[in-house]
Amino acid sequence: MPQVIRSIEIRATPSKVWRHVATQESLRRWISPNLEIDLRVGGHYRFLGPDQQTWVAGTVLELVPEGWLILSWLEESQGWTHPTRLVVALEASGAGTKVTVIHDGFAGIGRQDWPDVVLDYQRGADAHKLPEKLAALVDADES
Amino acid sequence: MKANPADALFKVLADPTRRRILDLLVEQGPLNVTQLAGEFRGLVASGISKHLMGLRSAGLVHASRDGRQQIYSVDARAVAGTLAPWLAKYDRYWIAALERLRDLAEDEAEE
Fold it and tell me: Which of A92, A93, B10, B29 is the most exposed place for a label (fewest CB within 10 A)?
């Protein structure tokens, strides 16, 4: 199923690269200057997306220093929210670091962890007070 | 605002029954309505058919005829086509973001 996977080799150790992932201030310098993030598992984040029109929000699903950061990725567009997931993974590569970004569209469908992504999407939607139909969706899923 | 085909797709997927139908088709391969209905308690075949229509119109599911029965399967190519603009946007974005990250980390490493 569709997904975006991109990697880059960086001439710096994983611990040095991780400094650019480990704080809101450092993430702002390469993801988005208006990013607001509570960097701990379950913490929320929000920023104005790549098109400068769409708000992206979600929560931190996993955070392993010098390893990976996984976010639920909820895109609010035309009154609806697109539930996806973003993985930023670091691995030592020679003297440097290979950084890989995986952005799942619906690659999760049919996989074990997909319900968790959807559940998190609904929690995030609730926290960010998205349209009422999303709240109705959460109720329908829980019943 | 012009409707984006990907928006229709995401909207269809917002329904838990439709997500479950897709999951079943991915896990078990092509199925007919009766086989699908067997997986849902409290949903009759006509209810499943209605959801299948939604999935078909969003281009997620493909139907083929086997004698008197319709067999449903996930249309992976159509899904990829519908999501292509959405994916292209993020592909460009992440290429640029990773380059920004590299420049920041390498500048610091050289200091």
Answer: B29
